[in-house]
Prior knowledge:
Blueprint: H1 3-14, E1 23-31, H2 48-59, E2 65-69, H3 78-82, H4 86-92, E3 99-101, H5 111-120, E4 125-126, E5 130-131, E6 143-148, E7 151-159, H6 170-173, E8 177-178, H7 181-195, E9 198-205, H8 207-216, E10 222-227, E11 236-238, E12 241-245, E13 252-261, E14 266-276, H9 285-302, E15 305-309, H10 315-330, E16 334-335, E17 349-352, H11 353-359, E18 365-372, H12 378-381, E19 391-397, H13 398-402, H14 404-407, E20 417-421, H15 422-433, E21 435-436
Parallel strand pairs: 1-2, 2-3, 3-4, 7-9, 9-10, 10-12, 15-21, 16-19
Antiparallel strand pairs: 1-13, 5-8, 6-7, 11-12, 13-14, 15-17, 18-19, 18-20
Helix pairs in contact: 10-15
Amino acid sequence: MGGGFVRFVLFFLCLGGGVAQDVRHLTILHTSDLHARLLPDDQGRGGLAYVAAALRQERNNCAGCLVLDGGDLVQGTPVSTLFRGLPVYEIANSLGIDVSTLGNHEFDYGWRRIYDFVSTANFPVVNANVVNADGAYLTGKPYTIVTVNGIRIGIIGAVMGGLLDGFTTPDLLGPWKVMPVVDAVNRFVVPLRERTDFIILLAHITHKEMDEVLQKVPEVGLVVAGHEHGGLGEMKRVDGRLGVRVRAYGREIGRLDLEMDVTAKKVTSAYWKKVEVTERLTPVSNISGQVREWEGKVAKAVDTPIGEAKRTIPQAEVRVMIEQSMKEATGADFAFMNRGGVRDVLPKGTILARNIWNIMPFDNRLMVGRFKGKDLPKVVTEGHPVEPEREYRLVVSDFTVVNQKTQLGTTGLEFPQAGPLMRDAIIDWVKKQRVIE
Length: 437
């Protein structure tokens, strides 16, 4: 044999026990919890035309890009509320998303509306853990397989297993049940392992569920997650498996650069960074046009001045403000507003009705019940002395009534008296205050 052949064999063996390596690059760009924030916030962060610009900028600087969205595209602004989410999916078609998944707020307009979202999207919406009694999957696609730079990638979708635990209501879920995330993912990893080089879970899940998948499902090499609005400070690593999550409202996108040994089906290196989305970027013009069109349809209803804020009011103080408006609207003694229901700050300056829609995008109605002091939930009376036998009026939202176990820590309380929409009560209260210090 010639010396060239010997050198080739030695080189071949040095690459890893006789198996030749095939290392390829993969860049994953990801968003989540955009929540219909079509426009930048009061700090100039986010806005869908600028999110698109950030994605385009990063895509132009990578060979082999995959764009993923972790759910909750909808619910958070007047356009989404008044038009039940669909315009957001129409605009999202121009973002360059390759695959998306369901978030809990995709259910806010009822499970049938999800059919409209899926049929409108020009990208697959995957979910493997929302199923009916016949075993059908709500989006029709539990997973998808894509090939990027010669890498076969299986992408499984999921939403948090505790979807009904304070995040939605049975009537919105209808005939569908939600399987635990790990159980659902385990249904697909074995067949996907044979057909792909890399498996990703694209999921709208809690930090705890992300950790469970990374620890218990070794076939999943990467979890790209949404739902927890604060994102992650740094990438999770568990025995070579990875987890990433960005902040909500389009204020940042994520970029994960991987080197993949396709032969061994493993990641050899990984670098993750978060890219801020600000008005320093040049907005994508066609999306700016779509945003103007849809915002123009709601401007008359929501861009009306109702008061003035002397400073930016943080969400914790906004919650107190909401509870006061609830009491004044119904004459109640106590009010309870769940923390997760406050969706924005109240910015400094002229207060528009739009600002209240952004704070309270949900069409929740106030509900009032009468209870003896001894029967009031502790979360309501904490710090307030009550007489055990005296009757008090408590006002909450209809969402809290249905989810009172998780929100109030109790069950069986009845709230027979219906009041106005919570959003209307807040707007009326701000008008009466005129100036908020």
